[in-house]
Structures are given as structure tokens and as C-alpha cells.
Specification:
Bound molecules: 5'-O-[(R)-(carboxyoxy)(hydroxy)phosphoryl]adenosine
Helix content: 40-55%
Number of helices: 9
Number of domains: 2
Distance between the termini: 29 Å
CATH architecture of the largest domain: 2-Layer Sandwich
Length: 340
């Protein structure tokens, strides 16, 4: 008999539902919330209200697109945390009610585990090559920058992580002070393609081991920019492509330096990328370059599986279903905690 999992994701500002059948993705519907743009960041209260409006139509559409009736579902997987509490509660409550009404198991998923396992999403008719265990995963998102040793679907060890800001957070803040808009990642990426990555140089951190730090870079960027703008009020307008390219190159270098160190230390050549920042072209190019230079076998999920999405929650749910690893109805959402 087939295993059909409905995945639900609502940890931040995207409401998403996806259906996976026997490991193959049938649908992945994402409703993004434009309401936050005017504020230059996610407003938690507005996010949870938007989730409430979106959740039913998004799940409905995911089932319709998949051609699956709700009675055919084997289980409902949902993001239990970490994330914004008000946002999580909408998905968690919906998932529990939906599963209970259908009399099927519920599966709680750690959002970060989901990002890593996005590398295992398969689509009918596509090559679907997946990493072999153990492999390294660089997880870079708005809230996390981690190097993870993935030993199996459920055994992951964080080898290094940021001690302050995440890479995405630094990009978003720098973009905001340049007046470029929110979220900064895609804007910086686009501008960087037309700029000179060597035009400006910014401080790089000296953190021992495999940990990261991005707050020093952010501060040095903001400080330099203030000085330049004092001399020339149109400085950003004149130099935005070079600024974006130099900032992106510095962040990519910081990320890759530690990843290379980890790969050497653990003697691993299978390296995957995950999280929203993995959409970045500079980082993707650096991965390809490392594959050529160091013989890495690299895995970069499709763009739609790298930012917040329910397909990654559904695939994690699919693997947990194999182990009959279900969650009791009283399991609460959690806002903080790293990988489980
Ligand atoms: O994983 P994600 O969708 O969710 C959170 O962690 O909230 O990651 C969002 C982050 C944001 O910081 C966004 O600016 C960044 O991913 N991002 C990018 C790009 N697309 C999204 N950063 C750099 N280049 C991109 N193309």
C-alpha cells in the first residue's frame, strides 16, 4: 500500500502544504505574505493572522493538485518548531485537528531537519540523485548558519554554527540600510551579478573551530557605509552593484572556508546545501567551483525546496512514518531549539 503524507509548514511568513506519495512529490503549494514588505521585516502578529486566512485554501489546493482525497492520506506531518510561536500555532493546531478528524497519525517535524532532508525530495521523471550518508550539509537561512554532519535521516550532528547573526540575517540587514528593500537576499543576489566582488573589502571574522560569526561583518559594513554616505549622499546609488557583489563574496567566502575545513577534518566529499540563502547564485557557484577543485559531490535542492516550504516537511514526515515515529496530540509547538 502507498504511503501518502500531507506536510504543513507555517513557522514564519509562508503558509505551505505539500503531498508526498512514496517519497515522490505530488504538490507543493506556498502562499507568501506580502503584508510584511511595508515593514522591512516579518511582523509576527500579522504573520499568524495571514496563516489563519491561508491555511485552509492552501491545504485544499495541495490535495487537489496532487489528485489525492483526504481520506487517502496516511499521516499529517507538520512543522512543530523552531519558528514564530504565533505562526507555528496555526499550522500545528490545523494539522492536529485535521489528523484527528481523519483518524490518522500526526508527525512532528523540526523545521531545520526539514531543510536538510529537502535534498531527498524526489519528483517523477527527474534524475533524483540523493546524497549518501554520511554527508555534510551547509544550512543557511534567515535564522541559521550551520554545518551539519548528516549520519542518517534521524541522526544529525551540528559541527559548527553561528555564534551571533545568521548569514541571511546579515544580508537582509545590510540590504535594509542600503535602502534596497526586504527580503534583501534576492535583491543583493541580482545586483551582485553586475558588480565587482573585489571593489570593497570587509572584515572577516576569526572564530576558532567550525563556528561562524556574521555580526562583525554586518557592523563593519554599516559603519563604512555611514562614512561613505556622509561624504557622498548618493554613494549607494553609485556603488550598489559593487557593494552587493563585495558583501556577497565576503559572506560566501566565510561560509565556504569553514565548510572546506569541515570536509577536510571529517574526510567527507558529499556536500549538500540547504535553507533560503542556498538560492544565492554566488554560493551556488562557489559550491560548483569546490566540486571541481576538491572533487566534492554536491547536492543543491531546487529553489522552491530551499526557502520555507512544506515539501521538506512532508519528506521528513515520510521517513518518520517508516519508523512509525508519531507525535501525541498534546505535543506543543516550540519556538527555539536546534536540530533534532
Ligand atoms: O530558509 P528561509 O526561507 O527562512 C528563514 O530562515 O526565515 O531563508 C530566508 C533567508 C532570508 O534571509 C533571505 O534574504 C535569504 O534567505 N535569501 C537569499 C536569497 N534568497 C533568499 N539570500 C541570498 N541570495 C538569495 N538569492
Amino acid at each position: 500500500m502507498s504511503t501518502i503524507i500531507l506536510g504543513i509548514e507555517s513557522s514564519c511568513d509562508d503558509t505551505s502544504a505539500a503531498v508526498i506519495k512514496d517519497g515522490y512529490l505530488l504538490s507543493n503549494v506556498i502562499a507568501s505574505q506580502a503584508v510584511h514588505m511595508a515593514y522591512g521585516g516579518v511582523v509576527p502578529e500579522l504573520a499568524s493572522r495571514a496563516h489563519q486566512q491561508n491555511i485552509v485554501p492552501v491545504v485544499d489546493q495541495a490535495l487537489k493538485q496532487a489528485g489525492v482525497k483526504k481520506e487517502e492520506l496516511s499521516a499529517v506531518a507538520f512543522t512543530r518548531g523552531p519558528g514564530l510561536m504565533g505562526s507555528l500555532l496555526v499550522g500545528v493546531s490545523f494539522a492536529k485537528g485535521f489528523a484527528r478528524s481523519l483518524g490518522i497519525p500526526m508527525i512532528d517535524v523540526n523545521h531545520l531537519t526539514g531543510h536538510v532532508l529537502a535534498n531527498f525530495i524526489k519528483v517523477e521523471g527527474e534524475p533524483n540523485e540523493v546524497p549518501q550518508f554520511p554527508f555534510l550539509c551547509l544550512l543557511v537561512s534567515g535564522g541559521n548558519s550551520q554545518i551539519i554532519l548528516v549520519k542518517s535521516y534521524k541522526d544529525m550532528e551540528i559541527l559548527g554554527q553561528t555564534i551571533d547573526d545568521a548569514a541571511g540575517e546579515a544580508i537582509d540587514k545590510c540590504s535594509k540600510v542600503m535602502g534596497l528593500g526586504y527580503p534583501g537576499g534576492p535583491i543583493i543576489d541580482k545586483l551582485a551579478r553586475q558588480g565587482d566582488p573585489k571593489a570593497f573589502s570587509f572584515n572577516k571574522p576569526h572564530i576558532p573551530g567550525l563556528d561562524y560569526s556574521f555580526s562583525g561583518l554586518k557592523t563593519s559594513f554599516l559603519y563604512s557605509l555611514k562614512k561613505w554616505i556622509a561624504d557622498d549622499p548618493d554613494f549607494v546609488e553609485h556603488h550598489k552593484t559593487d557593494l552587493a557583489a563585495s558583501l556577497e563574496a565576503t559572506i560566501v567566502d566565510i561560509l565556504m572556508d569553514k565548510l572546506r575545513k569541515a570536509a577536510k577534518q571529517y574526510n567527507i566529499k558529499e556536500v549538500a546545501l540547504a535553507g533560503g540563502v542556498s538560492a544565492n547564485n554566488g554560493l551556488r557557484n562557489a559550491f560548483r567551483d569546490h566540486a571541481k577543485r576538491y572533487g566534492w559531490k554536491i547536492f543543491i535542492p531546487k529553489f522552491s525546496y530551499t526557502t520555507d516550504n512544506a515539501a521538506m516537511i512532508a519528506i521528513t514526515g515520510y521517513y518518520k512514518y517508516q519508523d512509525q515515529d508519531f507525535c501525541p496530540i498534546e505535543a506543543p509547538a516550540y519556538s527555539r531549539v536546534s536540530i533534532k
